[in-house]
TrEMBL record:
<keyword id="KW-0949">S-adenosyl-L-methionine</keyword>
<dbReference type="Pfam" id="PF00398">
    <property type="entry name" value="RrnaAD"/>
</dbReference>
<keyword id="KW-0694">RNA-binding</keyword>
<dbReference type="InterPro" id="IPR029063">
    <property type="entry name" value="SAM-dependent_MTases_sf"/>
</dbReference>
<dbReference type="GO" id="GO:0003723">
    <property type="term" value="F:RNA binding"/>
</dbReference>
<keyword id="KW-0808">Transferase</keyword>
<protein>
    <submittedName>
        <fullName>Methyltransferase</fullName>
    </submittedName>
</protein>
<dbReference type="GO" id="GO:0000179">
    <property type="term" value="F:rRNA (adenine-N6,N6-)-dimethyltransferase activity"/>
</dbReference>
<dbReference type="InterPro" id="IPR001737">
    <property type="entry name" value="KsgA/Erm"/>
</dbReference>
<keyword id="KW-0489">Methyltransferase</keyword>
Length: 199
C-alpha cells in the first residue's frame, strides 16, 4: 500500500540526507564518520548527556546533515548555543539553512584549538562528536580530546559515539573519568556512546 503524501513528505528529507551522506562517503570515506546519518536513538542518547539548563555553548564536531543537532534541539538546547564545526562546505551550507540561529564553523575539528580559538565566548558545556575517531591514529585522537578539554568548562562532557567494540579513546587516561552507554542495537550499524570528563 503506498504511503500517503504527508508521510512521503516527512520521509523525503531523511532520504535526501542519506543520499548526501553516501555521496560524501564515496568521495572521501575517511572523512566521514558513517555511511548514513546517525539514527534517532543514537542521536537522542548523545543529546541526553548535554545540560539543557546551561547558557554555555555546545560544540558539535562533524554534524553532517544535522541528525544529532536536531536531537540536541529536541532535547531543549537553544539553537543559539550551538557551535557546529563541519569540514564539508556542502554540509555547512545545509546546516546554515536548517539551523539559522546556530553558529556554523567550516573548519577541521582535528585541529580544534585553531578552529575554535576566536569562536567561543565562554567555556563549552559539552562537546558532542560524530567524528570517525577510530579511523585516525591514536595521537590524533588524544590531541583532539586534549583540545576539547581546553574548550570545555571543568567537568563538562566530551561525548563521542563509535561503531567499534573498543573505546575510541582509552579508558585509562590519567585525570579523566569515562562512562559508556549500552550498545544501541537499533542503530545501523549498532553503536555505543562514550562520555569523557576531566576530573
Amino acid at each position: 500500500m503506498p504511503l500517503p503524501s504527508s508521510a512521503r513528505a516527512l520521509k523525503k528529507p531523511r532520504l535526501d540526507d542519506e543520499v548526501r551522506f553516501l555521496r560524501s562517503w564515496i568521495e572521501k570515506p575517511l572523512h566521514m564518520g558513517a555511511v548514513m546519518p546517525s539514527g534517532k536513538l543514537l542521536a537522542r542518547k548523545m543529546a541526553h548527556y548535554v545540560d539543557v539548563d546551561s547558557d554555555a555553548p555546545v560544540v558539535e564536531l562533524g554534524p553532517g546533515t544535522g541528525a544529532i543537532t536536531s536531537a540536541l534541539i529536541e532535547r531543549g538546547v537553544d539553537q543559539k548555543r550551538l557551535v557546529l564545526v563541519e569540514y564539508n562546505p556542502g554540509f555547512c551550507a545545509l546546516l546554515r539553512d536548517r539551523y539559522p540561529q546556530a553558529k556554523v564553523v567550516q573548519g577541521d575539528a582535528y585541529r580544534l584549538r585553531d578552529t575554535l580559538w576566536n569562536v567561543l565566548s565562554a567555556p563549552a558545556s559539552a562537546v558532542v562528536s560524530g567524528l570517525p575517531l577510530v579511523t585516525k591514529p591514536m595521537l590524533t585522537r588524544l590531541r583532539l580530546i586534549r583540545d576539547a578539554f581546553t574548550a570545555l568548562a571543568p567537568g563538562a562532557p566530551f561525548v563521542q559515539f563509535t561503531y567499534a567494540v573498543v573505546p575510541p579513546i582509552p579508558k585509562s587516561l590519567p585525570g579523566v573519568s569515562t562512562e559508556a552507554s549500552e550498545r544501541i542495537w537499533m542503530n545501523l550499524p549498532p553503536a555505543r556512546v562514550w562520555v569523557y570528563r576531566k576530573d
